[in-house]
Amino acid sequence: MRRIAESTAHKTSYSWYFVLAFSRRFADCCAKMNTQIEFRRRIGPDPHAGGVQTYALVGCPDILELDGGDFAVIGSDITADAAGKLPPSVSCGPDERIIRIPRRTLVLAKPDIPDKL
């Protein structure tokens, strides 16, 4: 009886492996975990250009383009305050954060954001 239970557990483990391995979300997650982060360029002007003062303590906020074409945002983490107030069709996963950047930062970055994928 014990041998059957061990065999079943072993097959169940492999079954879960294949379900997870071929799941798009799992594959995307693994790809992101194994990707080195390299910054291609800043999107928009330097947040302190012309002596502008920012709300953050140390040189933030900023928007950066990653080498693969995705974007990284530096801003204030407002997840704790905002997560419970999201619209019904919006969610923030446990591995995600809700970041606030000033309107000025995004509007000034607009010319640097590509129009096409």
Description of the molecule:
The chain folds into two domains: 1-35; 36-117, no CATH class. It has 117 residues and is of the alpha+beta class. The protein contains four helices and five strands. The strands form two sheets. A three-stranded antiparallel beta sheet has the order 1-2-3, covered by helices on one side. Strands 4-5 form a two-stranded antiparallel ribbon.
Short key terms for the protein model shown above:
two-stranded antiparallel ribbon, 3-stranded antiparallel β-sheet, 35% helix, 117 residues, alpha+beta, 5 strands, 15% strand
Give the % helix.
25-40%
The gross shape turns out to be globular
Distance between the termini: 57 Å
Sheet with the most strands? 3 strands, antiparallel
Strand coverage percent: 5-15%
Topology, pairings included?
Layout: H1 2-21, H2 24-33, E1 39-42, E2 62-66, E3 71-74, E4 76-77, H3 79-82, E5 99-100, H4 103-109
Antiparallel strand pairs: 1-2, 2-3, 4-5
What can be said about this structure in brief?
With 117 residues, the chain is an alpha+beta fold.
